[in-house]
Amino acid sequence: MTIFAYQIQTVIDIDACPVDIWQVLVNFDAYPDWNPMLGKVQTHLETGAQVRMEVLRDDSKPLKLTANITSLKDAEEVVWCGGNALVISGEHYFRIEQLDKQHCRLHHGENFKGLLVPLLRPTLRKASALYEAMNMALKKRVEQRCEIAAGK
């Protein structure tokens, strides 16, 4: 790892099948209802599409960013990249790993690169809590929806 790179890597196990997780994960219109990290996400779900988003932060107004979807595999993975490769860029990913029929592991993180990474490292370290908060909120929403669908 170089001083000009930083990774945020999180995982969470979710008691649901990949399709159930995917339906919540890519329903970007509903993000304001449950997502503590990404308040708004606007995109068309296709490789190459632009993603406009607002990252929610405790201490200030939302950070408005744009990116492009670079990888998309239905019910398995969505990746978007944004920023300036020289100054700072990020590759944000969600990957669903199926453990068995009704259990999955979500891999959620971001790979940052650029000249500003050393200066932003303290802020990026704190940002991992946002990823964890989103993971917990996603797990709760998906598992509640599955319980309702099962009539529990």
Count, helices? 3
Radius of gyration: 16 Å
Query: Low-confidence runs (pLDDT<50, min 5 residues)?
Result: none
Strands, count: 7
CATH class division: Alpha Beta
Structure description:
The protein has 152 residues and is an alpha+beta fold. It has helices spanning 18-25, 31-34, 117-150, and strands spanning 5-14, 38-42, 50-57, 60-73, 77-84, 88-100, 103-113. The chain has one domain: START domain (Alpha-D-Glucose-1,6-Bisphosphate, Chain A, domain 4, 2-Layer Sandwich), CATH 3.30.530. Helix content is 30%, strand content 45%. Strands 1-7-6-5-4-3-2 form a 7-stranded antiparallel beta sheet. A hairpin with a 7-residue loop joins strand 2 and strand 3. Helix 1 (18-25) packs across helix 3 (117-150). The chain is globular and about 50 Å long. The protein starts with a strand and ends with a helix.
